[in-house]
Amino acid sequence: MDSLLQRIDQEIVAIGGKRSRSRAQVIEVFFRTGTHVTVEELTHAVRKRNRSVGSATVYRTVKLLARLDYAKELDFGDGLKRYESNLEAHHDHLVCQECGAVFEFKEPRIETLQEQVAKQHGFFPTMHRLDIYGYCRKCAPGDKRNRDK
Amino acid sequence: MDSLLQRIDQEIVAIGGKRSRSRAQVIEVFFRTGTHVTVEELTHAVRKRNRSVGSATVYRTVKLLARLDYAKELDFGDGLKRYESNLEAHHDHLVCQECGAVFEFKEPRIETLQEQVAKQHGFFPTMHRLDIYGYCRKCAPGDKRNRDK
DNA sequence: AGTGAATTTGAAATTCATTATCATCATAGG
DNA sequence: CCTATGATGATAATGAATTTCAAATTCACT
User: Fold this and answer.
1) Is A147 within 8 Å of A134 (Cβ atoms)?
2) Domain B1-88 has CATH 3.30.1540.10
3) CB A133 within 8 Å of CB B128
4) pLDDT-based confidence at residue B84 (cuts at 50, 70, 90)
5) What does the pLDDT read at residue A34?
6) pLDDT average, residue stretch A61-72
7) Which fold is adopted by the domain B89-149?
8) Preferred mutation among B94, B96, B106 to probe A, highest tally of A CBs within 10 A
């Protein structure tokens, strides 16, 4: 964990940046925090440690992590962006439309098919996003009345 | 096409709405327009016929179509929502990060795997979104220098 | 055709996440 | 210790999307 922070610090220096206390705190909390965080959530978590950190810094830091490929930007269509660590292997998401819970899954066969499809279209993929929306076990509707809310 | 508009009109009446000239124009242009339109594009297209249509009406109409399941809301992560007709069979998207072109594809085997995955997690899927980002044939980079822009 | 209740409209105002601005502060190299 | 420059945090600005509201339109009922 510390070595991760060091590594990131080095990369920041390498692109002409300086170290800073606030940013280091944001980064550490980000990697410790559960995944799929919104900036607001992350800001709140960081402020528990250091009340003075402004949300602009959190926005900047999380964008920086995404630029350095340590974080991935997610968007589940509810109007706010979420971020997750990009250290773990690639995975996709199951998003519950009722309670907002997000589950992760891996399915290498889907990845394979995606590459095939891209190739068929003369397309050079750099990344993809697969989100499955629906109802998790807890929120599963016995009937369909929930649907239209 | 006319029967489609009639059918939609009937549904609107069924949920307590009234017919209106502007909305009918928006709906017609929407179904005639190429797919993946932004609200801005659609507004512009509608105004060619009827200068007086306001963008609020376009926003409202396209939301209404989505509610009635005639349109699908898309989001390719560039900050604006896009809409496409929901009449055609389901398909997914290849999005070029360079020129913004969007290509559609169908891959039933991916759909099947998605349902398997959902079932494995006790998840009840209602829809999904698969977007593959990368470079289309035209924008394909010979080297990797394009990547970071 | 006329009336009235209800919906829709377009313009403008508002909302809200995100980004930019800017004066001040912190960092790091000399 | 000095200085140049990047980073910060408060605040203002941006921009897509939504809401407000008075005026216009629709439509069921005469």
Assistant:
1) no
2) no
3) yes
4) very high
5) 76
6) 96
7) Dna Ligase; domain 1 (3.30.1490)
8) B94
